[in-house]
Amino acid sequence: MRIRDNNKVELVKKTAIELIVKEGLEGFSMNKLARACNISVATLYIYYKDRDDLIVNIAKEEGRGMSDTITKDFDASMSFEEGLRVQWRNRYQYVRDNPMMNGFFEQLRSSSYQQEFLESFLADFKLAMGSFMNNAVARGELQEMPFETYWSIAYGPLYSLIRFDQEGKSMGGRPFKMTDEILWTTFDLVIKAFKK
């Protein structure tokens, strides 16, 4: 039996992510991955049981990393504005530092892998975010609302700006580049939308 080569494992993961972002999940296969890595298909099966095992393992590992980044310096007891500011900073930083992973997660978000991906980090993450929202409501900083409404107002603008930035253009094809001024001006407007 061959020994697991950690360099090959990293190459396989990196290449799989790139192929999935470029060609989508439908266009991704173990054969294409092996060719792109310049290894045999049999080598892939030393590391992963099958295509699903590969994708789920990458999603779980990277999902935990994303969760760790997003919750860095965050505490559910923070004031609403302070906590949301930390969330915006961390989420934007994560996407900026990991644009390929953001594309990979976008592919998973609208696929049959979504649930397994979310379960890899969602329990603790959801608890922290739920506590943060409940604390803000209890302190009177935020009115009670469905979580989906909250998320859409709190993070929808951020992720729209990120998408415009990654595409390099906004609506109508106008050139767009994210700046700190745009980011934090938008954040201030989001905070105003939440104020009673």
TrEMBL record:
Superkingdom classification of source: Bacteria
DNA-binding region (UniProt annotation): 29-48
Report the PROSITE patterns cross-referenced here: HTH_TETR_2
Q: What Pfam families has UniProt attached to this entry?
A: TetR_C_10, TetR_N
Q: Which UniProt keywords apply?
A: DNA-binding
Answer whether the UniProt record assigns the keyword Transport to this protein: no
Where does the record place the HTH tetR-type domain?
A: 6-66
GO molecular function (one): DNA binding
Which parts form a coiled-coil structure per UniProt? none
Q: Which InterPro entries match?
A: BscR_C, Homeodomain-like_sf, HTH-type_Tx_Regulator, HTH_TetR
Protein's UniProt name: TetR/AcrR family transcriptional regulator
Record the organism: Mucilaginibacter achroorhodeus
